[in-house]
Amino acid sequence: MSQHYRVVSEVRTDGEQVDIPDEASNVSVEPLATAGHVRVTYLKPTQRIAVDGGDETEPRRYID
Fold this sequence. Notes:
Blueprint: E1 4-13, E2 25-31, E3 37-48, E4 62-63
Antiparallel strand pairs: 1-3, 2-3, 3-4
């Protein structure tokens, strides 16, 4: 079974506390051109589940 991930990327002020899930991987913090801001990026695992789409033509396949 293959693992699927969702990319999470947030811009925060330098020194701001960020809650990163324990299961996150490839966490990076990069300074931005805007003084005092950083970009926090990580991969968050997702799970594929079967969902009855009802009236939707394409069922949703991932959840957080």
